[in-house]
Amino acid sequence: MKAVILAAGVSRRLYPLTYDTPKCLMDVGGKPIINRQLEAIQSAGITDLIMVVGYYREAIMNHVQSNFPELNFEFVINHHYFETNTAYSLRLCNPSLDGGSFILMNADVLYPNEVLKRIIQSSHDSALAVEIKPCGREEVKVIEGDDNRLVAIGKELIESNSLGEFIGVAKFSPDFSKAFMGSLGRLIEAGGNADYFEAAIHPLMADYPVYYEDVSDLPCIEIDFIEDLEKARELVQSNWFN
Fold first, then answer.
1. Strands (E), 27-177
2. Class of domain 2-241
3. pTM exceeds 0.90 for this model
């Protein structure tokens, strides 16, 4: 199984901190965010990674290759990182994934190794890590159907109907992978270059089951704003990271 890390974005919401440093290389508790993700990947026994890079790509590529020489990196370059979003970045991975199962994560998520362990060991072939909680407008929300199956995902869902937040770590089966790439292609052809990849998951949920794994007991956060970065630096003091 391969892991895909989406790390192409500019992170405007963290300006001026990201003027000269990509978000995934920002320090959280003495380590860059990306180091913590790659250590989790190593602990799960995954050795093959696809990283989509764009903004400050040379800095990211040099850093991960120097610090994790035992991992096999394939770099996919999103040359249009200023005007595109994660749907476009992930679609660029289609030739490399070739319909295989994969782990997907955004490069700006702080989480302990246990999150990835739960996703990989999930009894479900396609599973999303979800924090069950009340959500606001900014979070990527999910709605639950029966038996842990999800029926909707997106930022625009009605907050009161939502189960919680998808934290940006997922596992997809080969069947879902093939359908997902097709859905991403249709989204982009329809003008969705600036959409998040979750917009291509939602239309598939009726025909391709996607479940969730509850990670509410674990310290996780997607870092979008300076307040998130400050909270992440508090969360990393948890025993889950030591």
1. 27-28, 31-32, 48-53, 72-77, 102-106, 109-110, 127-132, 141-144, 150-154, 164-172
2. alpha beta
3. yes
